[in-house]
Design goal:
about 180 residues, alpha+beta, Beta Polymerase, domain 2, 6-stranded mixed β-sheet, Aminoglyc_AdlTrfase, transferase activity
Length: about 180
């Protein structure tokens, strides 16, 4: 594991400590969610991606900024919360809720769009002694599959195809009918 990955893991531990003591729910998403599902660091990561409820974002930002995290001036806070912890990039995509309380996209042009059923109900992932809430494997697979369709300008990268293969290998086959 390289030094950036160690610093990213330290930032994940810090987020879990801060949000745990403040009772702010968060869920790891993206490549790190996959790694926590698999139980090890599988590849280098550019950043650390999370979900948080839109209503918790301001309080979360206040808590992390008080710990010397700094905002990413390139990203509008209306879309998501983007921060730096040293040289580690961290983003918190916002979650909303529909009338039935199900999670939706919480901001931006896709606000209100339903997110995969059960996405927030996955068991926590673990790397070493660190246990972290993550989005479900089914949601991780759906997002990796659909990004090139939802955003045609974003072609599937080789790492996305590798991630899909790793995730699919952990899903039991459907029962034979």
């Amino acid at each position: 594991m390289d030094e950036l990955a160690r610093r990213q893991l330290a930032s994940i531990a810090e987020v879990i400590a801060v949000t745990g003591s403040a009772a702010i729910p968060v869920w790891l998403r993206g490549g790190w969610a996959m790694d926590f599902h698999l139980g090890s660091v599988t590849r280098p990561h550019v950043d650390v991606d999370w979900y948080c409820w839109r209503g918790d974002a301001e309080r979360l930002a206040t808590l992390l900024l008080a710990r010397d995290w700094r905002p990413d001036p390139r990203m509008p806070v209306e879309q998501q919360l983007d921060l730096y912890a040293g040289d580690v990039e961290v983003s918190f995509a916002y979650l909303g809720r529909d009338r039935a309380g199900r999670p939706t996209v919480g901001a931006g042009s896709w606000a209100g769009t339903p997110l995969p059923a059960g996405m927030l109900d996955a068991p926590p992932g673990r790397i070493g002694a660190l246990t972290v809430p993550t989005i479900s494997v089914a949601a991780q697979i759906e997002f990796k599959q659909m990004y090139p369709i939802w955003m045609p300008e974003r072609q599937r990268r080789p790492k996305d195809a590798d991630d899909l293969a790793r995730l699919r290998a952990t899903v039991p086959p459907p029962p034979e009918g």
